[in-house]
Amino acid sequence: MTKERIAVFDTTLRDGEQSPGFSMNLEEKVRMARQLEALGVDVIEAGFPISSEGDFAAVSAVAAECRTVTVAALCRTAEPDVRRAAAALKHAARPRIHTFVATSDLHLEYKLKKTRAEVLEMTRQAVTLARECVEEVEFSAEDATRSDIDYLCEVFATAIAAGATIINVPDTVGYTMPVEFSRLVRRVREQVVGDRNVTISVHCHDDLGLAVANSLAAIDAGARQVECTINGIGERAGNASLEEIAMALKVRADQLPFETAIRTEQLYPTSQLLSSLIACPVQPNKAIVGRNAFAHEAGIHQHGVLSNPLCYEIMTPESVGVPANNLVLGKHSGRHALAMRYEDLGYAMQPDEVDVVYARFTSLADRKKRIYDQDLIALLQAGTVVHEVLPAETATAGKGWVHAASGV
Ligand code: KIV
Ligand code: ZN
Fold this sequence. Notes:
Helix content: 40-55%
Bound molecules: 3-methyl-2-oxobutanoic acid, zinc ion
Radius of gyration: 23 Å
Number of strands: 12
Largest sheet: 8 strands, parallel, barrel
Structural class: alpha/beta
Shape: globular
Strand order of the largest sheet: 2-3-4-5-6-7-8-9
Distance between the termini: 36 Å
């Protein structure tokens, strides 16, 4: 059976990066963009060019570097915004201008101080100008899920008439519920899109922890692009997590017969790269990429998994890029094995430094059954050990975890 394709629009470098404490410099953004391209995303939203010189430079650099994906630049509906986005995308192989304006009465009255008629006109002008600059224009109705539906449909119809071929329905404040969101997307599909060649996109925030569920409900209702981020980073509680959407579609293809171009074995390395670039560890119980996602601690689980992994595993660690690590490290392991593992993780140490860390390691191994890579990194940070971080290509940082004594 041929499956319909869902486009994955990654906004880690825009919505993700704009959340406090997660900023990346230009070099880091380009490195992340290269990895996103290797992961197989369809669109990289690289920034909001008018917001700063740094964002402009990052969008330009990603556009110059990533030739096989679409590179999107965000802008409001004001003319200078649109022109700045177009300028940043000048060298893109596949440029997309993503313009947005709020459509809820709340935002119109208190934020924009505009009437509904004015916002309609702003939409028409911005999309028209964007289409003069690039072939592909996406229009987003900010706060769509709290907007009057008839008005929302009118704005989308205006954007399409002006040349937008992707219309995005953001749940900006993470407020909607799956059944409700699915109804909204269906209504937009029936009332606005019809049989036109226009893609419905969704962009869900996670304030109620429903971003992924809402995105999947929207796909079921007709959305064919999902906007998401690695590790679910983003404004406030974050955006829908890319890895969770990709694996839900893969593992539950029986319920949702769609496919993405995501190379799922690149999910874990991508998650680890982002985590190291923004210096923010992934929550251990995070679905798909958390260090406990495939760990079976309870004896009864271990027994089941050893007899047949299907008892408790709905996907393999390898399928998301977590290779099984056969290296066994326990309190009887030697300094050499420990130093080798650190080298794999990207840390080179002098013999006297190994001695210091080894003492900490054995003391931890006395107290803790399993020692994960994250524990090893924490041991380095716990003290004053000076270590040299090896270049990325030498390291297999985070590719696996270390089991103390015997284990799963
Ligand atoms: O959350 C939101 O509404 C956005 C738009 C700019 C798409 O990020
Ligand atoms: Zn957002």
